Prior knowledge:
The protein is built from eight helices and no strands.
Amino acid sequence: MHTTLRELAHFAAVKHIQGRSFKRNSILDPFVRMIEGLERYPAEEDRDYLRAMLKEGVSEHIRRASPYGLKADRCQAIYAFVDLFFDELLGKEYHDKATALLDRAQLLKPAYLIFFREAVPPKQQQAIDSDEDSSFEEDLQENSAL
C-alpha cells in the first residue's frame, strides 16, 4: 500500500495537482475529494459516474484556484491522478473494497501529505517548511520560463 500511495502523491507533486499554495489543506484537497466522493458513492456500480464527477470536480476546483487557469496538460494529469486513485489504490491495493479504504482514510491522509512533500523540489520545500502562503503557481511560472 505504501508504494502505491507514495506513487500517487509523487505524481500529484510532480504534476502540480494541488490548490494555490503549499499549505496542508491545499496539498491534501484533491486526495480528500477522492475520499469524500467515495464516502458518498461507495457502491461499485457508481464508480464510472464517480470517476467522471471527480475528474471534472478536481479540475474545476484547481482551475478556479489558479490565477493562470488550467492548461490541457495539467488537466490530463488530473484525469490520470483520478485514474491512479481508482485503478491502483482502490482497485489493486484495496481490491475495489471502498469500505476498506475508507476505514483507513485517517491514516492515508497524513501519509499522502508526507509522500507529496518528499517529492517537492527544494525551492518549494522551503515554502512548505516555513509554512508560508507562497503560491506554487508563481513558482510554476518561473520554472516554465526557464
